[in-house]
Design goal:
This protein has 386 residues and is mainly alpha-helical. Helices cover 75% and strands 3% of the residues. A two-stranded antiparallel ribbon has the order 1-2. It starts with a helix and ends with a helix.
Length: 386
């Protein structure tokens, strides 16, 4: 633009001064060794003008040629980029289709390409599915060096290690994350999976208090699972009495949770503490039967389950057509050796709805009463109802 302006200025000056120089006899003499060039001032001006024009034209041509050469290199680079993208697309599509060998072949061609670590994550996934554990771990470690894929690589590797029963290594990965990363819901989910896999149920229960908001709808799932695992661990390692003491230490809100009550009572039954289990079942259902707790009455083996029988009969007075209540009382009475009550309640349940477990129970009652023909007919009826 500056050159164009200067050229325009020269033209204007020439138009103004040109007429005044017409008829002037001034001249310019150029002597070069044996050569002499003589010209008028006007001729010199014209020559300078065309020299400037020539220079601008030559400059323009040079720039065009350089631009064409540079443009060809850009085109080659663009072609390479499209080729790498094509391999990435083919690899990801084959991975999604479960065609792992072609996926691996395509992704290996772009192993060192810049895809923000996604190519390395995909390669790790392929190798893991092909059973190449060490290769998969290597690619996850490479992806972890890329800022964009670091967290994804670490979480994916941790999940894989958990699936390989190496929860200790998985938890080590989580522990090394930043404080901010440890507050993310997806990180907490993997953390909980690792603690569960490592049977660190008590630690999981303690950490859940601070994870409630992050886990959202998954919080109850983990709380119930942690309670079940922790109670089972205490019962197996320390015994039923220690389990009862641990239960009594819990906050009232947790002891009111049906899921936690269920986990606790199941462990009491597993420890053959049926009397304690009955007390807990009756206490937990003072306001009425609960769908999670009611079936546990069927697992009680007590010679005289007075409290349970009284509670179930109380509920039946209010809801005499409830097949679940009749069935539960029938099983409870059968385990107590009260065949008369068991038969009566089993028949009442079958009259409302013929369910296999009640028909089979009635068959077992008949067999215990030494009525083999009736028992056989009921067994056949029960298996038809399945």
């Amino acid at each position: 633009m500056i050159r164009v302006i200067l050229l325009f200025v020269i033209l204007v000056v020439g138009l103004i001064t040109g007429p005044n120089l017409v008829g002037e006899k001034g001249y310019v003499l150029i002597a070069l060794k044996n050569t002499t060039i003589e010209m008028s001032v006007i001729s010199l001006g014209v020559m300078v003008f065309f020299a400037v024009i020539g220079f601008l034209v030559i400059e323009w041509l040079i720039k065009r040629i350089v631009g064409m050469l540079t443009g060809s290199r850009n085109w080659l680079g663009s072609w390479g980029s499209r080729r790498r993208q094509s391999f990435f697309n083919k690899g990801m599509q084959a991975l999604a289709e479960g065609d792992f060998v072609p996926a691996r072949k395509a992704l290996l061609k772009i192993r060192n390409a810049e895809f923000n670590g996604l190519n390395l994550l995909a390669l790790a996934d392929v190798e893991a599915k092909l059973g190449n554990t060490q290769a998969a771990l290597g690619y996850w470690d490479e992806a972890a060096l890329n800022e964009n894929s670091a967290l994804a690589a670490q979480l994916t590797k941790a999940r894989f290690l958990i699936s390989q029963n190496d929860s200790k290594a998985a938890l080590a990965i989580i522990e090394n994350l930043t404080i901010a990363q440890k507050t993310k819901a997806n990180v907490i989910e993997v953390w909980a999976e690792g603690l569960a896999a490592a049977d660190k149920w008590h630690e999981l229960r303690e950490r859940l208090t601070g994870w409630k908001k992050a886990l959202g709808g998954r919080y109850q799932h983990w709380q119930d699972l942690a309670a079940e695992g922790d109670f089972a661990l205490i019962a197996s390692n320390e015994g039923g009495n220690e389990l009862i003491q641990e239960w009594q230490k819990l906050p009232r809100a947790q002891r009111k949770s049906p899921a936690q009550q269920k986990a606790y009572i199941e462990q009491l039954i597993a420890q053959d503490m049926h009397s304690e289990a009955e007390k807990a079942l009756v206490e937990a259902q003072k306001s009425g039967p609960h769908t999670q707790l009611l079936p546990l009455f069927k697992k009680l083996h007590l010679a005289e389950p007075k409290a349970s029988t009284k509670l179930l009969q109380k509920w039946l007075k209010r809801d005499s057509d409830n097949v679940l209540l009749h069935s539960t009382l029938a099983h409870l009475a059968y385990h107590a050796g009260n065949d008369e009550l068991a038969q009566s309640e089993a028949e009442a349940a079958i009259a409302i709805e013929e369910r296999q477990e009640d028909v089979i129970l009635l068959a077992e009652i008949k067999a215990r009463q030494a009525h083999p023909d009736e028992a056989l007919a009921l067994y056949q009826q029960g298996y038809k109802a399945s």
